[in-house]
Design a protein that fits this description.
There is one protein chain. This protein has 146 residues and is of the alpha+beta class. The chain has one domain: Aspartate Aminotransferase, domain 1. It is built from five helices and six strands; from the N terminus they run ααββββαββαα. A six-stranded antiparallel sheet has the order 1-2-3-4-6-5, with helices on one face.
Length: 146
Amino acid sequence: MPPKTRTVEQYLKSLSSNDRVIVQAVRDLIRTNLPEGLEETMAWGFPTFQVPLSRYADPVDGRPMVYAAIDAEKRNFVLYLTTLYNDSPAEIDFRARWRSPSRRMVDFGGGYLSFRALKDLDLDLITETIAAMTMDEFIASYHRDA
């Protein structure tokens, strides 16, 4: 895990060259397909894409709602896709359609995928998932089970 950084650029510079290539590729994919209005920032020690507090200022924990994020960990990478959570229809569809091009195991958790190499990811499905919701739809989905 990189040392504590304050900006995305510092975070990227703190990574090994291999990790930087993978994180940057996933980050570029997120940025290219991110719904309008979401912002990139550093939170929890890694690049996140979130709803600005000026747009939704009443989250339960006082922090902005994270839409997507990417992190390089010691032995793997984690892609957070928070629209895939709580057995939502989006999560069920994503899991049913997921195919790892490398056939290597990708760990699915509550709103995240843990992977070891870029070739492990179904980039088309991830792209579709990132672009699937508007910011307003994402905010509304936050209260789906409340």
